[in-house]
Write a structure and sequence with these properties.
This protein is mostly beta strands. The protein contains two helices and 28 strands. The radius of gyration is 28 Å and the shape is elongated.
Length: 363
Amino acid sequence: MKKNIIIALIILVGGVLLIYPLLKDDPIVTHTKKENPAEFLFKENLATIYNQEVSIEIKANSSVQRLEVLFNDSVIQSWDNPQKKVACQFNPNTFGVGTKTLVLRSTLEDGSIFVDNRLVRVLSDIIPEKLTVKVVKTYPHNTTSFTQGLEFYNDNLYEGTGDPGSLGRTVVAKVELETGKQLYKMGLPAGFFGEGITILHDTLYQITWQNGKCYMYDVANNLQLFSQEFGYVGEGWGLCNDGNSLIMSDGSERIIFRDPKTFNIQHSIEVYSNKGPVNYLNELEYINGKIYANVWTTNIIVSIDPETGRILQEIDATDLVIQNRGLGEVLNGIAYNAKTNKTYLTGKNWAGLHEVSFDVPGE
């Protein structure tokens, strides 16, 4: 018995002696934060404002051979053999507003790497302009249409609907503006809840709420469904386009730009005001270089800078909602007719579709 124990101890000690040199030479080791040879000197996370440069102090010891600051995965400043304290001039403008990651990466002579991660929240520097909705003219709207998408294309109006109750009411339709009549339509089976629509190069794109599917229809052929479809991860809410990319919301503060040929993500922005993120971005419309979005659960429409995500305007549609709610649901549906330069609003199951203007209160 003792002999077996002695043999086991010999094997254990031998194994440790064999492995130790390998561990000693391996630069990829785990370090605690206390061992970190370089770190940011500010505590917790960082909050700043777009267009506002901030000086960030960094402490590094003599063992650091190279020091780099990364923002949103891009190196924004670096030093070779930094001395004790250095400062990074941080300007958040490159990546717009929102919550990003700031990383301090230090490399030692032996090749080992240490990081100090912080979150950075960048608020908008713009106080949104306050506007209200003024009704110019009202047209009939089909009260059975649970409006999820609304769009003009070549002076023709198209509408996409959802399917509460899973009754098979998800459709896309060409609609006659003057009467509200559906000239022709194409539907999806029960269980597919249609959301935003947009039209680009004679193709109508329709996303779905929780099915992870984008369907495509031939506008030139009475909205016949194409056999090709796209898949995506997460929820689908609103959809519009800028002539090049499909622009999609998912119910959060994020707006995603997608390739219309593949539906792959090109980039995304986060939508922030001067107070913080704006969630529940729903139906979208691209009008004269700005993204307009219904904010679900509110009577507010926001206009957004597509480059930075900053909110430029907050448009209050409360009076319009009060006039139209009745048996209908929430405000949802923004359409802009580029040929006439007119904008239209409606809501889910509303009886009216309204030509509107966005005006300064009191004017």
